[in-house]
Amino acid sequence: MNSGPAVDSKLVKLIEDCLRKPVYFRDIIDATKEHRYRAVLLAWSEVRMRHQLERDELGRFWCSAL
Amino acid sequence: MATTQSNRQEDFRGMLSRMEREGQLRRVTRPVHPRHISALCNQAPTALLCEKVEGYDTPVAGGIFWTRSRTASALGWPEGELGTRFAKAAARPLAPVTVSDAPCQDVVTTGDDVDLTTLPIPFMHEKDGGPYISAGVAFAEDSEFGLNAGCYRMMFRTRREMAIDLFTASDLRRFYARTYERNQPLPVAVAIGVHAYEHMAAAFKAPAGVNEMEIAGGLRGEPAQLVRAKTVDIPVPAHAEIVLEGELLPNGWTADEGPFGEFAGMQGDLKHNPLFRVNAITHRKNPIFYALQMPWENDWLNGPATEAACMRVLGMAGIQVTAVRATEGGCCGWSVIASIKKRAGEGKNALTALLTLPVVKQAIVTDDDINIYDPNEVEWAITFRCQADKDIVILSGMKGKHVDPSVRPWDLKPGELPTTSKFGIDATIPEGIPAFRYERIVPAFKDEVRLEDYL
Predict the structure, then answer these.
(1) Closest chain B C-alpha to A40 CA, distance in angstroms
(2) Is the Cβ pair B33, A37 closer than 8 Å?
(3) What is the value of ipTM here, to two decimals?
């Protein structure tokens, strides 16, 4: 299995921008599809550690603190 | 459990190779993005082994238990004997053995080096709350009930944490509730990529205190081989492809988890569940990740046990059963068909017995001249052997399932269990009608010719 790359701060910012309104996780994947999947998961991990994400009953994510 | 050196028994990758030889698995050699794995598995006529997953050097398998025939291939059993074989195996459990040297620990990563993003955890369904490990078999031990193995989905959250679905009643939920009350973590190990015998045994809802790995031994016909995990004192399948070791944190049911494409074929709800913190990842050299595809793989893992349960209750009712089929449309549990050697009144007795099983919601009973694997034959029997006002049994107020929208679970108070109505169709020849009235058409001299000699 591949060893760990660093978290891509631009990708973190891109995901944070997505989370200014309610989005499905699918939308995060779609918005970041030009990036490597693993880099997206690393950035998502970073976002979840930095922020308390909110969820609506449809399962969408957003972050009102952003 | 005895301790022994590891000797070779068919493992996950051996099962995949055999399925490939039997035409039940194909290799995908072109690169596949992790977000496309489920879509490809859904379209495939066989199980898939995606050899090149973009950004990873770990292949991903999926669709192994998607159909009855693939399930039979994985188990190495005839298609028509899934229920009978499962029943025999469950009646003859074999204690597992502990080995001292295991392939699943060829490579060990611990502590801060642990990173779940090293695994090609796929994003599977449009409305899922994240990438999911869908094929995890979780192992935990309790001082009273001993070792338990069960199947639990886990949503990727951070490099070290997954949210694990412990929403419904289960042995692991029971174990966790005990440690949660003491504000302590529960050590857990999760195996990914285990053989069908171990996976199906873990999916089996065995009574608390029954070690599912003994059932796995019964299914395999030889003891399952386990090894102690590296950082938690829990045995795991020695030949698993990947093992996650860690603990369920005492956060209770607080972490957002889901939605996820559920076993009933519908997108589930957002839930709140415990967190699984991963402290070690061990794996074989060149591991294969397994992405179990919903809903049919989840359903077929339970299908043989459902068929075995049907045979058991029919036997207890004194009915001579010739075949039982859990149907895919009923998620291999909610809808069953049984053929019987009927004596007067036993069509209704059989239906009543089948409908007492908690999950079975609809049942059809036919005579033993009907091939219940042929939907046309079953429909023919319903059409000509059934009078709706006499032969349809409806039972009301029985135990239901939250996952069934028709019971309107959203109207229930917290902790309130749903009830459901159930129905059965007695498609056996009605009492008083002689069998010759149903004499089938037989082509003249059919045994004298073969079509292939004329084409």
Answers:
(1) 9
(2) yes
(3) 0.95
